[in-house]
Design brief:
Elements (H helix, E strand, L loop, with lengths): L1 E8 L9 E9 L5 E9 L5 E13 L2 E10 L2 E10 L5 E5 L6 E5 L6 H13 L8 E2 L3
Antiparallel strand pairs: 1-2, 1-8, 1-9, 2-3, 3-4, 4-5, 5-6, 6-7, 7-8
């Protein structure tokens, strides 16, 4: 839970023009997770754009596999494919490898951590060439 800064992602049409992207997660009373994605368009001083959604755990035995919905009644897979030992970063992907977000608790990530993540992600079938760094 809490706020995460997007370090890099696969470009998606719904994030076109976004900079300074963050995702904030909080537990709702009904057990779902509130998702608030924010970014600035077209630059860090630009207009704030916010998208609110909700997420749910798909399998109670594996809380790393979620479904997220920003447009009812549609839900999409949202899998945590890697998590830092101290929750300093998280990598969120999709089983099709069409979506990928590298998130951090801070606006920046040490290059050695980023490079090690990329190596492990490529071993899982994610394509580094598709990743774009996010201005923070």
């Amino acid at each position: 839970m809490g706020t995460w800064y997007e370090i890099a992602s696969y470009p998606q049409s719904f994030q076109k023009g976004c900079t300074g992207t963050t995702a904030t997660y909080s537990i709702l009373e009904n057990g779902l997770v509130r998702v608030e994605n924010r970014c600035r368009k077209p630059d860090l001083d630009g207009e704030l754009d916010t998208a609110n959604g909700r997420a749910r755990v798909v399998d109670p035995m594996n809380s790393a596999k979620l479904e997220v919905s920003f447009f009812r009644p549609f839900w999409g897979d949202y899998w945590i494919v890697e998590l830092g030992e101290n929750y300093e970063y998280a990598v969120v992907g999709h089983p099709s490898r069409d979506y990928l977000w590298i998130l951090s608790r801070t606006k920046t990530m040490p290059d050695e951590v980023y490079r090690a993540l990329i190596t492990r992600l490529e071993a899982q079938g994610y394509d580094e060439d598709r990743l774009r760094r996010t201005k923070q």
